[in-house]
Amino acid sequence: MEQLIADLKAQIIEQLNLQEVKPEDIGDDAPLFKEGLGLDSIDALELIVLLQQYYGIRIANPDDGPRIFTSVRTIAEFITEQKAK
Amino acid sequence: MGTGLHKEVAYINATSAIGAQGIFRNGQPLAVPGSADVTVLLRAGYEQLGSPYPKFHKMDTLSKLGWLAAEILLTGTPLLERYAAGSVGLALANQSSSLDTDLRYFDTVKDIASPALFVYTLSNIVIGEICIRHGFKGENIFFVQPRFDTTGMADYVQELFAEQAVDACICGWVEVMHTHFEAALFLVEKEAGSSALPLNAHNLEKLYQSITNGNGATDSRS
């Protein structure tokens, strides 16, 4: 899980062009939207693309988005859960 | 001069220019080395500003170019301290619209379409980025034309002032296509600054030509 979280931070920075953010600036449980990284709706779409590109995971139910993308840890948990299926 | 349609009702108080030869404000070069690589030049110009604006990195090249040119133009000139947000307008033009980004977006469609690129597939998004940054809410328009029609631009902006639709307006040319890029912005206000030129087609063309001649000297004082 820790490695997955580290990988995700690097991938988020690259995918979202967060060029002034370092992986260590992103807390594992810090909110990604509004507070924390302050991501917006376009970033949310890019995160969906990230899951598809890097992990081959599609989000079937859009209503799950807010829960999945709460923090880097919740994304990692979602990926782990999907891979276990 | 112009076409004679309007009295001169506004003044060009400042200019900015970005091209391969460097970055200029009122004809004076910023301490940024010129570069034919637009990415390198815009990044250097952004860092020279010294004030972080993380959204900059998410913009496409056209928006970065226009946004940075506006930052340079408005250095030390906080317009909203003097004007209402709704009375600051923008009128920009270019030749290639958003085609440079359209093509990049099209490349991603072959794999997974990029939402971040898609939102920049309109030329007037650069106006939105400038308005968001500075809080401007006035009239705006983006012309797509073969070359910078300084006569048409001067007439349009003069009309905005004549109708009292704006008290200040940023106008100019912001072009990006492949390796070619060029920005020339002009701050037009209803009151003349200390080194102003009246807004008319002749003065706008004269200032713009100084960029296309490659010396960057878009100085309203020259």
Characterization of the model:
The complex is a heterodimer of chains A (85) and B (222). Chain A is 54% helix and 0% strand. Chain A has one domain (2-84): ACP-like (Non-ribosomal Peptide Synthetase Peptidyl Carrier Protein, Chain A, Orthogonal Bundle), CATH 1.10.1200. In chain A, helix 1 (2-15) packs across helix 4 (72-84). Chain A is mostly helical and 85 residues long. The model of chain A has no long low-confidence stretch (mean pLDDT 92). Chain B contains 7 helices and 8 strands, in the order E-E-E-H-H-E-H-H-H-E-H-E-E-E-H. The longest helix of chain B is centred in the N-terminal third of the chain and has 13 residues, at 61-73. Chain B has 222 residues and is of the alpha+beta class. The chains are: A mainly alpha (85), B alpha+beta (222).
Layout: helices, strands, pairs:
The complex is a heterodimer of chains A (85) and B (222).
Chain A (H helix, E strand, L loop, with lengths): L1 H14 L25 H15 L9 H4 L3 H13 L1
Helix pairs in contact in A: 1-4
Chain B lengths: L10 E9 L2 E4 L2 E2 L8 H12 L11 H13 L14 E7 L4 H11 L5 H4 L6 H10 L5 E5 L5 H13 L5 E10 L2 E10 L7 E2 L2 H12 L10
Parallel strand pairs in B: 4-5, 4-6
Antiparallel strand pairs in B: 1-2, 1-7, 1-8, 2-3, 6-7
Helix pairs in contact in B: 1-2, 2-5, 6-7
